[in-house]
Records
---
Amino acid sequence: MFKRILSKELRDILRDRRSITLLIVVPLILMTGLTFFYDKLLAAPNEGNFEIAVNKEVGDSFIEQLQAYFPGVTIEKQTDLQEKVKNKEVQIGIQVDKDWQEKIGGQTQYQLS
């Protein structure tokens, strides 16, 4: 009985050209289009030029530590970080206090075992 109902419904669906088009052709076109769209969307125009802006008050030791973690990234000192990020001159802006080392050094360190 289930096979009879299934075969009847399939015949009804496949009889109409619009149904075949909607079932087969449209998904193929959509998937192809989305694949090319996402490929272009994810490919950044300036892939090799990733820049991080740091506020001017930060010492050179912080920039050296960032360079150690991100070797292929350009790190520059800037005055107005929010404006640079908003204008898309840099990808990331990092605002750090002048005394960041003392604040981190004054924290209690815990060891989990």
---
Amino acid sequence: MRLPGRNFVLTGDTVHLREALETVAPTPYDASTEESLRSIRRLQLRRDTADATVWISHDRTVRSSSTPACYE
């Protein structure tokens, strides 16, 4: 998502924690490990090429550190 002055990559349910994104670790109950690995790598690529903040909706540490002040 491109906003004025800031880009975000929304993860949905692809990863639930920052560690899963950084270590390319799919969730154990994903239907296809191969597809999950591919999706995580695509998130990393988008993050890196768009100079974006990754928004991991299930990770509270990400929400608290990345939430714009108007939403806090």
